Amino acid sequence: TAAIEQHAAAVICNGTHGTLASALCAGKPLLSVPFTLEQSVHAARVAELGAGLTVSGRALANATDALRRLVTEPRFTEAAHRFAQRYRGWGDSTTTVLERADRLLCARSG
Known about the structure:
It contains six helices and three strands, in the order αβαβαβααα. It is mainly alpha-helical. Strands 1-2-3 form a three-stranded parallel beta sheet, sandwiched between helices. α2 (17-25) crosses α6 (94-107). The chain is globular, with a radius of gyration of 13 Å. It has helices spanning 2-7, 17-25, 37-49, 63-72, 74-87, 94-107, and strands spanning 11-13, 30-32, 52-54.
């Protein structure tokens, strides 16, 4: 995942903790396609942060437009970069950073 995120303009995922936290820590905006309530809550928090968009699994036809917005509207990448800057240097390992980012994503959903 980390190697892909270094080169990707955005990350598309179903909204699991690990992928969301990893992408945000890499400063990449997210297109979330959640399939469970938990994933939907996390995707909503990312959208609230301004770092991503959510597309329903039932409306995948909208994914192309959403992805286009993520890579052409700077505000999404800027928000993802703010997240990455804010949490850069947390802990001694990537795992620690991801765990802390994960807790932050869950803070408002709990």
